[in-house]
């Protein structure tokens, strides 16, 4: 599929030169910073030199004072406290963070993760019944709960208080819980509203420490878990998340908790520096696998383990479950692709909604992501579980799938999530009606350009500008992620230096030169089809990022080509 090249408008030349002079950097690097809303020396200092002192006061979050008061009361009265969380990476890391911290102060603690298949997403009546039967009078719900109006009322009838710590968009009303922590509440004035669910849990821990004059290092020991949640839940890496991710990655690479250490040891690049992408593709899928194939409580048990011996046995089991997940995921993806390819009408739609009753509920989100990547349109994968239809939705850049689901709410039992990812349930008889209505809504609301994958390019770059210093400063923009993507560049009038060749299944290795530049080695993943075109054109242009290729003792700069034009 051809990608749409979009070059960001160049910033005001006065601003570029002024910031460049203050920082002693090139105009190109200055322009990149301004694209990221960094326009002054102080903003650049905060960006390049994040400090934990710049974390916001947790008591700026609405209901935080009430939450801490209720927890202190529960500890003082020796009440039993249940930490409840979603079964994904964000939920399990949030539960591990809050449970691990408060068990140091209170013996009456336990945690609860709902069964993906028996209970589904969010706070379940089954979970509340478990709490009631076992004498819990306070439940702290993390990464879920913001739309649980009925179930919170059900808990109140059983004399169970709830503290909700969520980061999803609220519905039209807020649950009647004892405290509701969610920066996306319209009446919450917290300065940053893009925290992960685990980030909310961390702020709760931070608030308890401040209130009780404890050492803040007691909270910082959980930053590796927060970084894992930030990467895996794909929240923006800006503001407070950038600080948390920066220091969380430092801890992950120096002194991670026992559970994360064993997952790092099981990864394919265990001897490398772990970054956001390594979490996304190595650690996150393993943590998720437990909940997809078996039960996510195993992931929490791994993340709260206090010894490598204990964590290693759990991690090996989870790693095996991840292998099973890959097999199931591949099988269902192939079936979904076959369904699309066999139906000519599907080729012309603006959305994809597929249903098969025996698809494994644990991997439909992954399959939805794969189909979105391939066909680049909003995608929903549905399956049947316990007599209900459950679905996972994924969107393309710029299109709000949560809003589209809101317009279909008359056909849904439940739905929740974000702009780009959501979960939903419905009755079997509504599936065909939903497919038709969702396609109608998407067709009428999505601009045509959003159905072509966008390459958002920072600026055109002459290869002669690229040297070790340029790359070193560029690399200080890490950690990269949503809203702080790795810079993409455009280079024109290039020619091959020697022949290009196919490597692996579908990749290209080549070297390029530009007038006035040295030779640069390049890798082009998934672009083997361009081999003939490259051979037939004397000049071409590329969209690329810059990376370091490390082989044995050799460190060389390499261009990672995302697309080629002639």
TrEMBL record:
Claim: Disulfide bond is one of the keywords in the record: no
One annotated GO biological process: DNA repair
Signal sequence coordinates: none
Domain DDH, residue spans: 80-230
Annotated Pfam families: DHH, DHHA1, RecJ_OB
Gene3D superfamilies the UniProt entry points to: 3.10.310.30, 3.90.1640.30
Family recorded in the similarity comment: Belongs to the RecJ family.
PANTHER family: SINGLE-STRANDED-DNA-SPECIFIC EXONUCLEASE RECJ (PTHR30255)
The protein, known as: Single-stranded-DNA-specific exonuclease RecJ
Organism: Sphingobacterium hungaricum
